[in-house]
Write a sequence for this structure.
């Protein structure tokens, strides 16, 4: 392929970007995976795939890896001052707002890490969020407590002023109906 491209690539380098763009256009409009339109292709004469009738074999895509699954414990900490929100410190979604969440920790350990003292467990709900390479199997725990070490916001403030990733927006459902 490289040798064939050298034969047709502009030698001066003047129109290289246009040439590259035209090759991408060819791939997008004519030489499409699963349905190449070889009859319309201006490169048909030099195309080895066309010559050997192997167009349907390309492109060869790597096998997709199975998505990693992670158990995520999400604490929906409700206080008289509002619901706890923090900036995610590491991992996926680092630096974004979240309800305090912990990958791979059980509920009790997550409570300890979050510094939650006395609490009342109001409701539990499961959610799934799929990233390109990870599946989060989330369990959200609505807990009522008197205070939190996190910034707290009313539900209206969260919905109107706090930017939450989609993974955590779905967790707001837990507050939609009191059990």
């Amino acid at each position: 392929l490289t040798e064939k491209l050298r034969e047709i690539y502009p030698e001066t380098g003047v129109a290289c970007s246009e040439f590259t763009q035209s090759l991408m256009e060819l791939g997008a409009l004519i030489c499409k995976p699963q349905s190449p339109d070889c009859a319309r292709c201006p490169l048909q004469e030099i195309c080895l795939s066309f010559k050997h009738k192997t167009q349907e074999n390309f492109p060869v895509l790597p096998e997709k890896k199975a998505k990693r699954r992670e158990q995520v414990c999400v604490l929906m900490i409700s206080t008289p001052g509002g619901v706890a929100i923090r900036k995610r410190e590491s991992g996926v979604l680092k630096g974004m707002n979240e309800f305090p969440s912990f990958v791979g920790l059980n509920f009790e350990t997550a409570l300890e890490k979050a510094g939650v003292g006395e609490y009342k467990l109001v409701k539990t709900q499961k959610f799934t969020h799929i990233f390109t390479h990870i599946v989060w199997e989330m369990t959200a725990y609505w807990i009522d407590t008197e205070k939190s070490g996190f910034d707290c916001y009313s539900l209206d403030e969260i919905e109107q002023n706090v930017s939450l990733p989609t993974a955590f927006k779905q967790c707001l459902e837990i507050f939609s109906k009191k059990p």
In short: The helical segments are 2-8, 16-29, 48-51, 107-114, 155-161, 166-169.
